[in-house]
Specification:
Blueprint (H helix, E strand, L loop, with lengths): L1 H24 L1 H33 L14
């Protein structure tokens, strides 16, 4: 188990260097890595924003900051 954990930590530390080597090997590879990073970053930001809004709404009182619904005439 210790060896597996050590290998995992080492591969995480080696990953940025491997990504840089791959990105510099070919201009298209660098572009694809950049687009992938932007897509993952944007999706993570949207998910984080929505999750934060859900957590904040759990602690707000019902109706706080909102006007009551208007009755139809």
């Amino acid at each position: 188990m210790q060896g597996l954990l050590t290998q995992l930590v080492q591969s995480i530390l080696d990953a940025p260097g491997e990504f840089i080597k791959i990105a510099l090997a070919d201009p298209l590879s660098g572009l694809l890595i950049l687009i992938g990073a932007l897509l993952v970053g944007a999706a993570s930001a949207v998910f984080g924003y929505l999750s934060l809004g859900a957590v904040v709404s759990l602690f707000m009182r019902p109706g706080s900051g909102r006007s009551p619904p208007r009755a139809d005439r």
